[in-house]
Design goal:
262 residues, alpha/beta, Rossmann fold
Length: 262
């Protein structure tokens, strides 16, 4: 097993064979790696199968029955095994917080499910609330928070059991530009300070360049890896956001995405 790789995808194929999607070839011979402690984004045309790929990497079931070829490994394990071992944390488009629980109780939930003792749960939650500047909101209910704050709580919940890998599926798509940028900076800080590996799915080119060390561009269906772009920009990214190299990457990926859509 290569310990330098968090995710390995090799010659991965998906063919849906349900009544509504009979013989729909969604993913074709997709191969890529995500190194430990790296930040990688996936981008592609609408409907290309990004969410299907995300679900299968996450160990989640797909909405329709499908035939699968090739392999996906998370730290050398099958995704379902890695998920059971709590190697990965999921942050989805909608926070899916429980309204009858406070912010602190929502973050605490996975620890309860895993059987952590109350005292240990309290210490972990307190530390996360402090590190994510959520302490003043610890007794709030989800409906009392903005969309950005709800997503922040969702990230805190995913971090509660300290997974090595965070998988994020367009988590900031519903936010306005100001809050989206604020959350982009938050997730960069979490990635660097907590030494996580992040795979981030987005349809926003600028967001992909702003966040990532590497951007994987997928083609239209049947989707394959069209291009991989290494982003050679220093962090913090807000200091290089206006430089010509930053805009060059945005232009380059936009051109690749246009080509991949045809």
């Amino acid at each position: 097993m290569d310990n330098s790789k968090a995710i390995t995808v090799e010659n991965f194929n998906v063919l849906f064979n349900g009544d509504r999607t009979k013989h729909l070839h969604v993913l074709e011979n997709i191969s890529f790696d995500v190194k430990n402690s790296s930040f990688v984004s996936i981008i592609g045309p609408s409907g290309c199968g990004k969410s299907t790929l995300f679900r299968l990497i996450s160990g989640l079931p797909t909405k329709d029955s499908c035939e699968i070829g090739g392999k996906i490994r998370i730290y050398g394990r099958k995704p379902e095994t890695a998920s059971k071992n709590r190697d990965l944390g999921l942050i989805l488009q909608k926070p899916t917080l429980l309204e009858w629980r406070t912010v602190a109780e929502n973050i605490e939930l996975p620890l309860e499910i895993m059987g952590y003792q109350k005292e240990k749960r309290g210490k972990i939650v307190t530390k996360l609330l402090n590190s994510m500047d959520l302490t003043p909101y610890s007794h709030y209910r989800p409906s009392e928070l903005s969309g950005g704050m709800q997503q922040k709580v969702s990230i805190g919940r995913a971090l509660a059991y300290n997974p090595k890998l965070l998988l994020m599926d367009e988590p900031f798509a519903a936010l306005d530009e100001v809050n989206r940028r604020r959350m982009n900076n938050e997730i960069i800080n979490i990635w660097k300070e907590m030494n996580k590996t992040i795979l981030f799915v987005t349809h926003n080119i600028q967001e992909a360049v702003y966040l990532s060390q590497k951007v994987i561009v997928l083609s239209k269906k049947p989707s394959t890896v069209y291009k991989t772009v290494e982003i050679d920009l220093k962090y913090p990214r807000n200091e290089v956001e206006g430089c010509s190299k930053y805009f060059k990457y945005i232009k380059e990926i936009r051109e690749y995405l246009n080509e991949a859509s045809n």
